[in-house]
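Sample pair:
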Amino acid sequence: MCVPGRLSLCFPRNYRRCDISLSDLKDPTDGTEFPNCPVLEKVEMLGFESYPPLWGTNLAHVTTLSLGERYEWLSHDVYTLSLFPALRDLTLFTTYMDQPRSYLHTEPAPPFQHLQTLRVRGSLPSKLFTRLVTPALEALHIEANYFGRTAINTLHDSFSPLCLHLYAVLPQIICHQEPQWATYLSKYVLTCTRIEKLFVSEWMEKKCIRLLGPSNVILHVL
């Protein structure tokens, strides 16, 4: 269980890896560093403000990160990403807002040289995607949040990774929330020239076939 303002640690029986879940945790006022966790591999963070005195060098081996905000994305969120140089699996999300506010400045995130899987859940600001450099990305997952909102409308003109597989397996509610979803998705697919496979929901198939036209992308229905 993750308690707001507390640390939640999970140690498997073999103690070879460590997972942590953080919610609404603030920087400690006494300057205490993060507990020594040399085998920390998976981190989940929601509504979190991070500062160097808290972390030390404990995040060098984290390969899986889920980072989200309830309402708006701030510059410290981009800084938080810079603390995870070895990421292979990254999830970015917004919990409640269907159109999140963004207070991001110009500082870019560092290149994620090892990132293979990126998941974006809910509507995320375009400025966030312009800061992500992912040269080794293989799979991008576009997911809807509870309100049926996605990042399709911001991805198509602000983020063009050379991923191989694009997953847009979405609920039909996005027809009402984002009526231009098919146009934005097709623009994004045609921009990412390295994409080989597009995975969509059954109800999306006909419109995707019509908009993608004679492209070389292989369409898979899930």
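Helices lie at 52-55, 75-81, 126-130, 152-155, 174-177, 181-191, 205-212.
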